[in-house]
Amino acid sequence: MTIKYVFLVSRQAKIRLVKWYTTLSQKEKAKTMKEVSQLVLARKPKQCNFIEHRDTKVVYRKYASLYFVAGIGLDDNELLTLEIIHRYVEVLDRFFGNVCELDLIFQFQKAYYILDEMIMAGELQEASKKTVLRVIAQQDETEAVENSERGWGDLNLEGVARTAMLTVQEFK
After folding, report:
1. Which of 22, 87, 93, 151 lies 20 to 30 Å (CA to CA) from residue 128?
2. What pLDDT is stored for residue 147 in this prediction?
3. Distance (Å, rounded) from C-alpha 86 to C-alpha 73?
């Protein structure tokens, strides 16, 4: 089974995360994201989570305010893809502790890192939640050590992100 792309889109049609596993031009990628986002957002909640779009099957699932979308080949298993999406959400939820859209906006690098640990070259590489979370914890430890060696100390990125969000909200 080969995944062609994964992306997260909000109800307002804002792309929050994109990962491509096939080579396409930027124009073609933008066109595909726009078309697929419109197709997914236009569907009613009771409709099937599978759509055929050009030469791919689009598999999606909505969690809170985000749609998790994956494009697969026409011969690939849709239910397995739904399970992969669900596993990714479970890992995000465990890592962030009840993940929300803001977590993915301000800590997007962690969301990409988790996705990269699970899927490589469009193939599922690691299905174990414990293993993925352990590797992420090791990466966080390494990052903390490197920051302290550089004299940066413990950077409180979460606090910076929340402060930035408050500042943005004050201007609205």
Report:
1. 22
2. 82
3. 19
